[in-house]
Specification:
The protein has a 7-stranded mixed sheet, with helices on both faces. Helix 1 packs antiparallel against helix 2, helix 1 crosses helix 7 (198-207) and helix 2 packs across helix 3 (78-85). By secondary structure, the chain is α/β, with parallel strands linked by helices. The relative contact order is 0.18. The chain contains 8 helices and 7 strands. The protein has helices at 2-26, 33-50, 78-85, 102-108, 119-134, 162-167, 198-207, 228-243; strands at 53-58, 67-71, 89-93, 112-114, 138-141, 171-180, 211-217. It has a single domain (2-243), classed as Glycerol-3-phosphate (1)-acyltransferase.
């Protein structure tokens, strides 16, 4: 039964992805940015439903920018989960841009790409993020730099936070968690770490009992005179608390 349920979910997801690609190709060029963002949010919420995932939002998402969302990173699902809760522009590794299907959808959603191994590109990205914040946009980053196992968070990298410091923009901590809807216990089915394959993680998620994706928004805060590293550590501790509540 689990395999049959997973196959049905997979077929629905693939059809939904095809529909998303068609919308991007045929309708996005004629839409305003606000309408595009609304489509991305609605599409992401439907994707979660097709995968058997219910969204629960705690706290208050930002109504408007400028603001930088800082979240822990667990899964390939994190981006559609955060888009479903509140559209934002993600900063992602440049590899994603070349991924079949996913890269097209990510680009259409406004993703900013960074070459992580290049210090020069990191400086370029900080400038690009600063300009986006000064335009009043909502950005989102995963400062861990990679997915964790959901048990303990990895250290935060402080470099991208510099954009918020320079732009004097608030940062809003966000805690992400996946839970079994029936028991409330943390679900590790969507995890994507180490040597796991994306396909394997997706299949395990689709085979799992109904899952609840919990997005817990904290209170936006300013640097308030803290240097970048001290502020980053404080945000790490705050996100760690939010994901456990």
């Amino acid at each position: 039964m689990r395999s049959l349920r997973a196959c049905w979910r997979l077929l629905r997801m693939l059809g939904h992805i095809a529909r998303g690609l068609a919308i991007v190709a045929l309708r996005f060029p004629a839409l305003s940015p606000d309408r595009q963002h609304a489509h991305v949010q609605a599409w992401s919420l439907q994707l979660l439903a097709h995968a058997g995932i219910h969204l629960r939002i705690l706290g208050t998402p930002p109504v408007a920018g400028p603001v930088m969302l800082v979240a822990n990173h667990l899964s390939w699902l994190d981006i559609p989960v955060m888009h479903a809760a509140r559209h934002c522009r993600f900063v992602s590794k440049s590899d994603v841009q070349g991924w079949p299907l996913i890269g097209t959808l990510a680009t259409a959603a406004g993703t900013l790409y960074i070459e992580r191994a290049s210090r020069r590109d990191a400086l370029r990205m900080v400038r690009t993020m600063q300009e986006a914040l000064q335009r009043g946009e909502v950005l989102a980053v995963f400062p861990e730099g990679t997915t964790g196992d959901g048990r303990a968070m990895l250290p935060f990298h402080a470099n991208l936070l510099q954009a918020a410091v320079v732009a004097e923009a608030p940062v809003q901590p966000v805690g992400l968690r996946f839970a079994d809807r029936a028991t409330g216990a943390t679900s590790f089915a969507p995890s994507y770490i180490g040597d796991e394959t994306l396909v394997g993680s997706i299949w395990r998620t689709l085979c799992a009992p109904p899952i609840e994706a919990i997005v817990h928004y904290g209170t936006p805060e300013q640097a308030d005179g803290r240097d970048r590293r001290a502020w980053t550590q404080h945000l790490h501790d705050t996100v760690d608390r939010l994901r456990q509540t």
